[in-house]
Design a protein that fits this description.
The structure holds two protein chains of two kinds. Chain A is built from eight helices and no strands. By secondary structure, chain A is mainly alpha-helical. In chain A, helix 1 packs across helix 6. By secondary structure, chain B is an alpha+beta fold. In chain B, the strands form three sheets. Chain B has a seven-stranded mixed sheet, with no helix packed on it. A five-stranded antiparallel sheet of chain B has the order 1-4-5-6-7. The chains are: A mainly alpha, B alpha+beta. At the A-B interface, helix 1, helix 2, helix 3, helix 4 and helix 5 of A face helix 1, helix 2 and strand 7 of B.
């Protein structure tokens, strides 16, 4: 790939890095995994950059890879994944999620992390990316009915966990 | 759910990731391209070896299928989609070598479809290369077609937005499948056994719509003359 293409890819990645990490974080609930997933997605986009660029929507391409990559990792760790049932302790140190403001870690983010992986993915795709039930089902390789039931359970959990805030409606 | 959407947006936007690792992504991307090229080269060598070892089979399989009775529009010639015979002959039909279950061309590009265990679970990988484009993976999924349930074949199709990929699970009573695209182009696919299951696979540009998929029944190396229509199912890849 030419230096010009590398530069173009670099500009694209610098512009979309934060958004993809946020998406990956919403899906994985782990900042370390989120940055790994986002970096893997951009690497795959680079490997096919000529064609990705020609699609006219490289953002959608990378977003799709992030979702798929998260599903792949979810499948690999499904055996050991469990629902903690209580909110995790806030992270500390360099790997901790940073916030723009001085406020404490978002209650909603903590509640998201307490969801089962598929429920978390449903919430992020449906309510953050604003995907339809059908689009979410296609992205997660499940039925629209599963999306609906997982969303209902996830919202019930979020309501419970964020009750002090009362901001999940 | 506007409030949840807004709260999520606010919460996630408050996350400030570190600097984008552009150089590392480029380094990993280049490594992916090298691996893909190596895989395509290995499959091309394997396909050439099979064709050389079984010239009669190659001629038979590569021959265009007889045109169906209905009137189809004249085939377009750009792009021409071709499927090569792959695998080696076995008593129960063709057997995959190195997991390769399909191969062919789209115009000047070469495609390859393969199954692998990753880890311990069947994974379908399709790559395309050449034609002025770098080698790339167009499908990489654990999603495989459902059990046959008495049907001659079950076919799942995937799309990455520019290329459609199909993976089919095929019954023991199928000799081959004929895929006809709406523009009249056809593929003849001979099932290849991998890990105890017979598969077919093909790749085509996104814009080429499949008109029909017909299973020619009989068995490995035997066409009884009976046919059955198969309906592909679109799945996320």
């Amino acid at each position: 790939m030419s230096t010009e293409s590398d530069e173009e890819f670099g500009q694209f990645m610098r512009g979309r890095w934060a958004a993809m990490v946020r998406l990956a974080y919403g899906l994985t609930g782990d900042m370390g995994h989120a940055e790994d997933v986002a970096q893997a997605a951009f690497a795959r986009a680079y490997a096919s950059w000529g064609r990705v660029r020609r699609t006219g929507d490289p953002d959608a391409y990378v977003r799709r890879i992030v979702i798929n990559e998260n599903l792949r990792r979810f499948r690999k760790r499904r055996v050991t994944e469990h629902l903690p049932g209580v909110l995790p302790e806030p992270e500390t140190g360099a790997a901790a999620v940073q916030h723009a403001g001085p406020e404490e870690r978002s209650v909603l983010i903590d509640a998201l992390q307490a969801l089962a992986p598929r429920q978390r993915a449903v919430v992020v795709l449906r309510y953050w990316l604003d995907m339809s039930e059908a689009e979410t089902a296609a992205a997660l390789n499940c039925s629209a009915g599963t999306v609906k039931s997982q969303a209902a359970r996830a919202l019930a959990t979020l309501r419970k966990l964020t009750a002090v805030e009362g901001d999940v409606r | 759910m506007n409030n949840l959407s807004e709260d999520l947006d606010r919460a996630l936007r408050a996350l400030i990731p570190g600097e984008p690792p552009v150089a590392e992504a480029i380094r990993r991307g280049k490594a992916i391209r090298v691996r893909r090229r190596a895989a395509v080269l290995a499959s091309a060598v394997a396909v050439a070896a099979v064709a050389a070892a079984y010239p009669a089979l190659a001629r038979h399989a590569a021959a265009p299928a007889p045109p169906p009775a209905q009137h189809l529009p004249a085939p377009h010639h750009d792009p021409v989609v071709i499927a090569f015979p792959v695998g080696k002959m076995g008593p129960g039909g063709m057997v995959a070598q190195d997991g390769v279950i399909g191969g062919g061309r789209i115009g000047a590009s070469t495609w390859q479809a393969a199954m692998t265990l990753a880890p311990g679970k069947p994974c379908f990988i399709a790559t395309i290369s050449g034609g002025g484009f770098p080698a790339e993976t167009v499908a990489d999924t654990y999603t495989t077609p459902p059990p046959l349930g008495g049907r001659p074949a079950a076919i799942a199709t995937f799309s990455d937005g520019t290329t459609q990929t199909a993976l089919g699970r095929v019954g023991e009573n199928v000799a081959y499948l004929i895929v006809t695209f709406r523009d009249g182009q056809q593929l003849k696919l001979i099932p290849v056994t991998w890990n105890g299951t017979r598969y077919v696979a093909w790749l085509a540009p996104q814009g080429m719509t499949v008109s029909t998929v017909v299973a020619h029944l009989g068995g490995p190396y035997f066409d009884s003359g009976q046919q059955a229509r198969v309906t592909p199912t679109a799945l996320p890849g």
